[in-house]
Structure formats: C-alpha cells, structure tokens
C-alpha cells in the first residue's frame, strides 16, 4: 500500500544543450518528464511511499520511461499497450526576449486510450491520497471519463483526492478546460491552482487570498492552494488563509517547480503537518528544484529542512 498514488502520462523530454535552437541542434538531452510522476518523486523524496499509474506503449521508448521512473524509487504500476505511441516534448531554452519554448508531440499516445477498468482500482482505494492533474483529461475524451471514474473510486474508498489544475493552453482552450475541470471539482478534496489559471479559465477576479476563499466556499474543497509565482503561495483551510512567501533562489531550471511544491506539500500533510508547515516545505522544495536541471526534484529531506530552518515568512489570517 502506498501513501500516494498518482495517475497520468510521463513523456520523454528532448532538449538541445544550452540555449541552442531546435532547428539546428545535433544533440539532445533525453529524460522522462510528467507532472504526475514528478509529484510522486517529490513526495517520495520527502518521505512518502509513492506509486505512479499509467498506460505505456510496449516499446523501447515506453520501457525507457518506466525504467527511469523506477530508478527514483517509485513503484510504476503500468498497463502495457501494443497500440499507441510514447508521448514526447521538446524544450528549447532561451533567455529574454526569445524565451523558452515547449513543443508537444503527444497525439495518439497509449495513455490517451487508458480506461479505469484497466487498472487495479484497489491500489487507489488503499492509498491515503490519490493525485492527478488537469493535464490528464486534456489529452483525450477517454481520459476525461477515466479521470472522473478514478476520482469517484478514490472517494468511495475513503482516499483523499488531490488535483493540480495545471492548465496548458497548448492542449486546450480556456472554455474547454472550464467545462471539463469544473465537472471534476465535486470529486476533489485538495485543489492546487495558479492564480493566473483561476482568472483565465474560471473567470474569477481578485487577489490570491480572495481567489482561495471563493474557490473553497463555492466548490466545497477541503483545502485550496493558490500559487502566485515569485510571490509564493496562499493556502485556504478551515476558512483560514495562510500565506507563504517564496524563498530566494538562483534559477537554473523552472520546469517542474509546481510539481515539486505539490509533491512536498502532500507528503508533509501525510506526515501530519498543518497547512502552514506543509506550505513552507512545499515552497522550500520548489526553491531547491529551481536550482536543478531537468523536470524532477532531486532533493533530500535534509536540504529542505535546512531551507525551512533558514527562514521564510508565513502569515495566517
């Protein structure tokens, strides 16, 4: 039995070295990358036992992904498929004004056909937390239904459900996301959402504290966490708002920062920490992740403890 079970697609990320352009790159760095597996790894690094569920093609690329996930100490409980392909994405890093560019190549992937009946639902119901993100239902109509069924099954088994809104404009429009994701809200206990997504997709207005209050009261979540970039996070729980500032960091790679935060936050809540303490640990883990290349938070609990001890401002109101 795992503390946390996550469900979603993990892709292969291909990146030219340094700030080279994709169109003339001759070499690529390759690594596994996916929101749900990133969360599982971060939670594991903070002391939780974690399992990642997915549907993966029975190909060398699919086996590469699963092998890399398992190398981080995560249990990978996958459905092997002889149909569909392995999703990939290309990351071209660049400073301003060019910026960093992401190109997805995840059409007709094996995971897009995943159905709830293909998985051992008891794995979810035996866990303490089931986690997925808004990226998963964005990938196919099948996954929209699968995500709904998995959230319902978790709730029926008494498992806490956690969900990162994780809107990706390259996958679907704000209207499509609004229609689908709000239908999932009744099955979610803990919601993590960026303030910009609450405004863009849900049409909410106000500062992050107001957004957290409105989300918590309107949709009856147990906990709402609103992320606000360089300004840190806001957490709403028991009608109280807790603010946590971001820690200073020298950013090497911002990719995966939100996943690092969410995994650490969930792990510390599972450990018994209150919301303000879990916000501290999540924010500290996110800060360390920004110093690490790649998508995965290769942190240690000792490192995170040290960052938390050195300081960061927490305010509850």
TrEMBL record:
CDD domains given in the database record: KdgK
Presence of the UniProt keyword Acyltransferase in the record: no
Keywords, in A-Z order: Kinase, Transferase
Gene Ontology MF term list: kinase activity
InterPro entries, A to Z: Carb_kinase_PfkB-like (IPR052700), KDG_KDGal_kin_Halo (IPR054871), PfkB_dom (IPR011611), Ribokinase-like (IPR029056)
Superkingdom assignment: Archaea
Domain Carbohydrate kinase PfkB: 1-295
Annotated family: Belongs to the carbohydrate kinase PfkB family.
This protein's name: Sugar kinase
Taxonomic source organism: Haloterrigena alkaliphila
